[in-house]
Specification:
5 strands; alpha/beta; 124 residues; Rossmann fold
């Protein structure tokens, strides 16, 4: 399964071309997102974009933050801290979800490349 990060979802909401590109990228497996990405998307949207976001999120599953994902997130945070590659905790939680459930993260945020073992499909 592909997990769409907030950066990609915002691109989809703002651009038909980005939406078409994303559809081609994820056509071989189902796509979902996380509650953390829902939070980030709504935090970054303009008022006139919120209805489109509500419509989008009504069509895509939202993956929960499980106990296993929390354990994986702790491992990620400790590893990043040890290597001096700190990132924000929301991204750590999203990566933890992906690692716990063996999902591929689709993002345009290059910060995820520092997370070991995370399968990432970076779009630009």
């Amino acid at each position: 399964m592909y997990i769409l990060d907030s950066t990609v979802i915002i691109d989809i909401l703002r651009s038909v071309a980005a939406a078409e590109k994303m559809n081609k990228l994820v056509e071989d497996a189902p796509a979902a997102t996380t509650a953390f990405s829902v939070f980030e998307v709504f935090l970054g949207l303009k008022e006139n974009e919120k209805q489109a976001a509500h419509d989008f999120f009504s069509t895509i599953p939202v993956v929960d933050f499980s106990q296993d994902a929390s354990f994986r997130s702790v491992e990620i945070e400790r590893d990043l801290t040890k290597r001096g590659k700190k990132t924000n905790l929301v991204d750590v939680f999203i990566a933890g979800i992906c690692l716990a459930d063996n999902h591929t993260l689709v993002t345009s945020d290059k910060g995820f490349r520092h997370i070991k073992e995370l399968s990432v499909s970076t779009v630009s």
